[in-house]
Amino acid sequence: MTVNLKLIYYGALMGISNIIPGVSAGTIALIVGIYDELLVSVRDFFSPKIKRTLPFIVPLAVGVIGGILAFSWLIGWLLTHAFEPVQFFFLGLILGVLPFLFREADAKETFRIIHITLLLAVVALVMLMNVFAPEEGARTAYELTIQSGLWLFSAGIFASMSLLLPGLSGATVLLMFGVYGSAINALLTVDLAVILVLVAGIGIGFIVSSRVIAYVLLTHRTLTYAVIIGLLIGSLTIVFPGISGQIGMMLLSLLTFAGGFAIAFRLGKANDTKNREGVNPHDE
């Protein structure tokens, strides 16, 4: 099997994006033009057609894992030393990706009362989750008990789904569950117990949900996008770190917010440009 360096590069971009809330691996796959092939390969991976998917899946997976491991140290350092500006950067990313998702869903034409109701219900559900999620500051060690282990395992299951959902980052899911900083800390300190519980959740979640998600995305796009948009809007209340009141910190947070918004917005525009040039990621 010939190694496809381009797929490794795309995978690395997807891995890096998936540990940054607001910019998802699915969004990157859309922008670089491999999203449909990703959906089909994941669907066929758990079937007799598995050999056909390996030249695509293996180098992409190598890139994803490499991107996560290479970039997590920087995120960990920033969460420790600049928590508030980093959270505002994440807020900017999440808000910046929303116009892209509304355009992808063609919301003006396709959204009906049922889609708006579902979107608002998901926003309310995520805000409710914030009440039950363990409180988390910057980068913290995770104390494993039966209860916290099950919570972390559940976070891994839901985070795995984000690998295929454009606009929803695994990092956003971990933030919703209140374990994002702890997950980054576990990677940096090689906390094997925490890593294994999280990876087990991600692995099982991906195996169970991947074909379902691929089917839903290909057959019920509008409903799926309504859920994704609801998840992201609801996550804003979780990511918002409050305002310290210090002028210097507020100015820095404003700058990081603007930077995050600009990055996500431009990524969405890049995908629009591809579509105008005739590369439609939803064409089979």
From TrEMBL:
Keyword field: Membrane, Transmembrane, Transmembrane helix
Task: Kindly list the residue ranges recorded as spanning the membrane.
Answer: 12-35, 56-79, 85-102, 114-132, 144-164, 194-218, 225-243, 249-267
Q: Which Pfam families match?
A: VCA0040-like
Please state what the protein is called.
DUF368 domain-containing protein
Taxonomy of the source species = Bacteria, Bacillati, Bacillota, Bacilli, Bacillales
